[in-house]
Amino acid sequence: MASSRDTGFAERFGRVDVVLNSLAGEFVDASRGLLGEGGRFVEMGKTDLRDPGEFPGVEYRSFDLLEAGPVRIREMFTELLPLFDQGRIHPLPVSCWDVRQAGDALRFMSQARHVGKVVVTVPRPPDPEGTVLVTGGTGGVGRAVAERLVTHHGVRHLLLTGRRGPDAPGATDLVAHLADLGATATLVACDVADPDQTRALLDGIDAAHPLTGVVHVAGVVDDGLLGTLTPDRVDAVLAPKADAAHHLDRLTADLDLSFLTLFSSAAGLMGAPGQANYAAANAAVEAVALRRAATGRPARALAWGLWEGIGMGAGLSEQDVARISRGGITPLRPERALPLLDTAHRSTSPVVVPILVDTARLEATAGTAPPMLHGLVRRTVRRQASAATTGLDTAWTEELPGLSGMERQRVVLDVVTTQLAVVLGHADHRRIRPQQPFTELGLDSLTGVELRNRLAAATGLRLPATLVFDHPSPQAVAGALLTELVGDAGTDAPPADRAAPLRERIHRLEELLASADPTDEAYSGVEPALRRLLSTWSTRAAAPGGPDGDARGHDDVTDASAEDMFALLDSELGTS
């Protein structure tokens, strides 16, 4: 087809011999202007037919394709098909719409937004005699999915894969359990990231029960900060998730599947601290689903939130669950997740996000909530929650310049320990010792990034993801933040705190005393030793010149270092 608003087309490119037209009004006349003498104007439209007399010097003809008749049309196709096979011509692009979206498809076409063909597809209902493949079927989530397919979707033939296949722990019990539910399950050891193994797996399916559905559950995690990832660590996560999804898509392209469901993660859409490789793998899975669905083939990616207690969530501690929940997305118990699988299967969208959102928590942490969820947050509540509930309001930073050096340090350190207490799940931030290393406090790479995010929101600063590794204690982080907030003027601290080592050892002593039984005869010498130390210290403090005066106390304690004092204590207690 050749037509143009621009009458300069013919001047730039010359006249054409044939115009295949489907336009109307002034565009018909513009198209006519492209023809040279003796050309042909072929009108295939229906809304603006013209009298051939209006086209002097050219041949005008309107036509309907069906006028050619079935014999001639067959001859046309016979001529065209080899050209497609040879790649000399290419079919027009196809945009597919589920029949339940027919209204959207017609609207899309009526607005002339399409190129090529708009096709409406009809989902194929599940065939109870067909086979459904579940990758990762021997894992916790895979087992739950397999059971759900049997009990709620009428599946009677299952092919379950895993790295160990029938040798996986509990495999025999799983097969027996599914048999009790009325289904036949076959377990096969297969690495679906390997295209040859996957092809052999599909070729081995019994022709009496052809493959009619796929649920790709398999996947692994290898958490770490972006800077620590190596090509091997990235590949180890992408292969079983993204590569496998690509192979399954390609190898089932010509099969009449009822569904191809790819398990993804919300990490690919919203990000997750320390999971750059995992987020990338899941984003790639969703791209496979979108690409496949655009061709009219069944495909759906489910970007799950974390499943609690099974799968990748099986090894989470209470602290981990609390950390994840603080962001507003609550881990899903299997009994809540599985009904969402049914709902997703009824959806017409190629990417579905089955997550459980706690809107109250989301509003309370709006300053660090994923951008994708900002629409769920009421803005007025978000501002109040930030200041009153989470301590993420930055107004306090405006008061720092008016404070003394010591007061500034106290305020910033209080902010750091408050946010650290939230991350670690402590009720009272005052129990955190500022000089204690983060590694001893239980901070790992993921909670370290969460602390960085919370401090960034509380200070309004852009902080590196390696903040807690560059500054390995709350006090060190507070010093770095203070420098960023008020410059060198904020760090006019007094000389090094010489008493800090002694206070650390005393704190350790308090912990030891709290864990000991004072009624046990083995500790009978503890109290007298403590009293002698306290008496000596008090004598020094009251002596002329204070602690640095000339007074001498018991066992020359006045000149003792912290290590000397605790060696003395060990001697008094008989532990040295």
From TrEMBL:
Keyword Transferase: yes
Pfam families, alphabetized: ADH_zinc_N_2, KR, PP-binding
InterPro entries: ACP-like_sf, ER, KR_dom, NAD(P)-bd_dom_sf, PKS_KR, PKS_NRPS_Biosynth_Enz, PKS_PP-bd, PP-bd_ACP
Protein's UniProt keywords contain Transit peptide: no
Domain of life according to the entry: Bacteria
Keyword annotations: Phosphopantetheine, Phosphoprotein, Transferase
Domain Carrier intervals: 410-485
Region (Disordered): 540-576
Name recorded for this polypeptide: Phosphopantetheine attachment site
Species classification: Bacteria, Bacillati, Actinomycetota, Actinomycetes, Pseudonocardiales
